[in-house]
Amino acid sequence: MFDTVVVATDGSDSVKRAVDVALDLADRFDAEVHALSVIDASEVDASPQQLRSELRTALETTADAALATVEERADRAVQTATREGRPAAEICEYAREVDADVVATGTRGRHGENRLLLGSVAERIVRTSPVPVLTVRQLDPAGDGDDGDELAVSG
């Protein structure tokens, strides 16, 4: 059912559970794992010219660390890639290139009226992905009883 799982990661807290869930899914189906981190080109372009090189280097370092975390947590080989561009577009393009069966991504847990919002990147991935998307909400650190232990799969 799942031969290739793509994990989109930026190393943020909202992605940590998505990495664990994606790796568990890959283990259950003996699937190939691809980890992708995208450097947001618009973030670099919006910064002052004199800071762009330093910002790009910092974002590359963060991307490398995020990918290394996936590799460390996996009990199988992980193919890693870093792209630069619009994150949702790059993730969807990568999924096409590797013939992914599912893309896993994290999303921040929302409450109240905002509970259906996934976050701009996750929402764009869900809307434009050529394959099903597994969104994993981070756990609620407030401990208010809503553990955020929900998964959503679109596709």
From TrEMBL:
Pfam families recorded: Usp
| Domain (UspA): residue spans on this chain | 1-137
User: Which InterPro entries does the record cross-reference, listed alphabetically?
Assistant: Rossmann-like_a/b/a_fold, Universal_stress_UspA, UspA
Top-level taxon of the source organism: Archaea
Which residues, if any, are the signal sequence? none
Gene3D superfamilies hit by this protein: HUPs (3.40.50.620)
Give the family from UniProt: Belongs to the universal stress protein A family.
Would you tell me the protein name for this molecule? Nucleotide-binding universal stress protein, UspA family
Q: Which organism is it from?
A: Natrinema salaciae
